[in-house]
Amino acid sequence: MENDFSLAAYRVFNVVAETGNISRAAKLLYISQPGISKSISKLEQNLGVTLFVRSSRGVRLTEEGKQLYEYTKSAFLTLQEGENTIKKISNLGIGHIKIGVSTTLCKYMLLPYLKEFAEKFPHVHFTIQCQSTFQTMELLEQGKLDIGLIGRPDQMKELEFYPVGEIEDGFFATAGYLNHLKVREGKGLSAEKILERANLMLLDEKNITRLYIDQYFRENHMKTGQILEVSNMDLLIEFAKAGIGVACVIKQFVKRELESGELVEIKLPKAIEKRDVGFSYRKDRTLSKSAEKFVNYYKLG
């Protein structure tokens, strides 16, 4: 006979085995005594064994019944542990979020967010993967990340995007470097000539910021001279502060250096348009409760 009985039948068996009494089991399960007896009988028929010996004092397990009870007891204890874990996760807000982000955005934007969020939701754990925006988008599309913090690309494909701030690109150098450049090239250099004659420091060509700046150069018919490519923006900032050349970096990330005069901005005839930075995630993938809470926290904030 096909074993088509349900988990409910094992639940009935388990409670009867523990109480040794059909009447008490019926009260605990809110099922009639005939319903309990019928469920046990059907289970015995399906298994082809007798599970209980009935008497006027109640019921007791047969040897086969004892063996089955060891399995059902273990199974229901495991289910109870699972329920308790889920309730604990829900009550405490326990969760795990995998976030992809560039090193620069991680340092200047994500970390302040994480600090604030972690103080309010201390039981949520994070895995942070630092790589380029293009790599983060690929990992999101592959389902290997929950959320990405990225600059808005031209094409989002299958990704949602929620902006959380703006960034503004610019060109910066030390006053000393610019003075030396003017001595070498002559006074009265325009911003375009500075970028053409200077040691220009940019992110490498695999970076979305570099593509954005290259497009700015093309649209404004600007020429560039010697270019030093650097893998991340933190290094660009340090190279600029060392007086090595003119670096293209995000203005918000050198605010302190600009205020102190350690760096100065080269004023362009046409400002580079600001870009959105935000959280991105797959349209067709339901966010975990923790990830949804993380995104909504900043939507509401």
Sum this structure up briefly.
With 301 residues, the protein is an alpha/beta fold. The protein is 50% helix and 21% strand. The radius of gyration is 33 Å and the shape is rod-shaped.
List keywords for this structure.
301 residues; 12 strands; alpha/beta; five-stranded mixed beta sheet; rod-shaped
Tell me what the structure shows:
β3, α5 (103-120) and β4 form a beta-alpha-beta unit. With 301 residues, the chain is α/β, with parallel strands linked by helices. The protein has twelve helices and twelve strands. The chain has helices at residues 7-19, 22-29, 33-47, 63-92, 103-120, 133-141, 175-185, 191-197, 208-219, 233-241, 255-260, 289-300; strands spanning 52-55, 58-61, 95-101, 124-130, 147-151, 159-167, 169-173, 200-203, 227-230, 246-250, 264-265, 275-282. It is rod-shaped. A five-stranded mixed β-sheet has the order 4-3-5-12-6, with helices on both faces. A five-stranded mixed β-sheet has the order 9-8-10-7-11, sandwiched between helices. A two-stranded antiparallel sheet has the order 1-2. The mean pLDDT is 88.
Judging from the principal axes of the Cα atoms, what is the shape? rod-shaped
Can you count the helices? 12
Order of helices and strands: HHHEEHEHEHEEEHHEHEHEHEEH
Summed over residues and divided by their number, the pLDDT gives a mean of: 88
Distance between the termini: 61 Å
